[in-house]
């Protein structure tokens, strides 16, 4: 094996989350601060808890004072801490820690997910508005919008369930939110929460209707009086 390649392998690798790589600017780090983070992280992962800053300055090609300033900046931004670590022999040594940085990264990701969820809710609400306006043939009034918002936020009706209620109203030619509200309340009493539940409910109704129709037909046949057959050709003898 080539000696240079062997040395390259022996040096090991640093593991850095892509989330930090993609969001370090949003976390408030400059490019130089991020490079310093990589340098310190490399030492930490190699087992060196408190690397020599002068050595890091040489690697980064900057002055020692600049590295010290960068460390103070990371401490001030509360993404780097220096904590004492107890050894087995009772002695203590300092250790760099980026735990606060990882906490900020977690908070940033949670906020991003919340923002995406909020944006999705807004899009779904606008879609419900558009569907109802299209079927009703007129723009929604502020009061009608408040009613729909109440369905979504307070009653927790899903957009698909509201869409199913809209289809029922259109089929009944009842272009009214009050009619839709009655449908939704009726479904709520029957624990109907999705379009699939609506389909199951409609299937059961059709089956019950067909069963009742068959039963009524049987009962109707049974209630008819029996008429004796009489052949007019059989005339009584005189």
Poorly predicted runs of 5 or more residues: 229-233
How many strands in all? Answer: 2
The biggest sheet amounts to:
2 strands, antiparallel
CATH topology of the largest domain: Arc Repressor Mutant, subunit A
Whole-number average pLDDT? 88
CATH superfamily of the largest domain: DnaD domain-like
Beta-strand level of the residues, as a percent range? 5-15%
The number of helical elements comes to 10
Whole-number radius of gyration?
38 Å
Please tell me the CATH architecture of the largest domain by its name.
Orthogonal Bundle
What's the helical proportion of residues? 55-70%
Q: Widest sheet: strand order? A: 1-2
The CATH class label of the largest domain is Mainly Alpha
Shape: elongated
Distance separating the two termini: 131 Å
Structural class based on helices, strands and sheet pairing: mainly alpha
Q: List the domain count as a whole number.
A: 2
Order of helices and strands: HHHHHEEHHHHH
Question: What does this entry show, briefly?
Answer:
The chain has 238 residues and is mostly helical.
Q: Layout of helices and strands, plus pairs?
A:
Blueprint: H1 3-10, H2 18-23, H3 31-45, H4 53-60, H5 64-76, E1 81-86, E2 92-97, H6 99-136, H7 142-153, H8 159-171, H9 177-189, H10 195-223
Antiparallel strand pairs: 1-2
